[in-house]
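Protein modeling request. Please complete all fields; requests missing the sequence field cannot be processed.
Requester role: graduate student
Desired output: 3D structure, token encoding
Chains: 1
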Amino acid sequence: MRGAAPAPPRYHGRPMGLEAALPTDSVVTTQLNRVINWARRSSVWPLPFATACCGIELMATACSRFDLARFGAEVMRFSPRQADLLIVAGRVSVKTLPVLQRIYMQMAEPKWVISMGACASTGGVFDTYAVVQGVDQYVPVDVYVPGCPPRPEMLIEGIMAIQRIIDQDNIPRDPTGKRLPLNIALTPNYELRPQPVPLGIGTSNMQGMPLRG
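Delivered output (213 residues):
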């Protein structure tokens, strides 16, 4: 029939989605701030500032194995005016730092920052004059994700930590009303495995042959 509304999706004859939980012509009462926080939590748009191997793990979160879309944060935006979550994945050089600060300033409020990996948080193994030893010295960081590089599950846990703060409407602010960084440091959710082959100095692990050179 022309002009008729499409039928809701069904699974094995049963309605799916909100239609399955609510009967026909139902009324739902709630608070406006709860609806706003639910919408903000379910539509976090990240801006990936990936400069190193952490960016590969960031890409993996959007793949089917981890599926960041389950949490409503898969819409990667490369324009700061369309994003509210800045993910710093990898080391940041001194020359790149002004670009990072400009991107953060152009993002819409309320905005959030995740420092992904050891290089973004502390400089990692790059203890040199050309690498910033922690982006939190120049940009307020809300969540620190450990690892070198961290697994996609760790990044998803960091995004969920921000979503919980948004959902609870528990955003810290100073007396002037300016939002304060959350400073949440995640703990690793994995255990390190031992080396499959014992390592030695001066000898090879293959058939006891000495190393060349």
